[in-house]
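TA notes, week 10

Several of you asked for a full example with nothing omitted. So below is the full record: structure tokens for the whole chain, then the designed sequence directly under it. When grading your own attempts, check the secondary structure regions first.
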């Protein structure tokens, strides 16, 4: 049986659900920007999705 270290996988992508609003709080926009910069710095791929609920 393989040990647990050999079964670990490296994260290559991060999935984020993205909502849209014209009233986004500035601190959320700042955090999203910093998050994107950090993903890029680490060479991670962003997979995003969005939707609308009625």
């Amino acid at each position: 049986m393989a040990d647990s270290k050999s079964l670990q996988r490296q994260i290559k992508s991060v999935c984020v659900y993205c909502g849209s609003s014209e009233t986004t709080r500035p601190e959320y926009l700042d955090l999203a920007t910093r998050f994107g910069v950090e993903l890029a710095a680490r060479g991670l791929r962003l997979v995003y999705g969005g939707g609308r609920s009625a």
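The chain has two helices and two strands. Use that as a sanity check on your answer.
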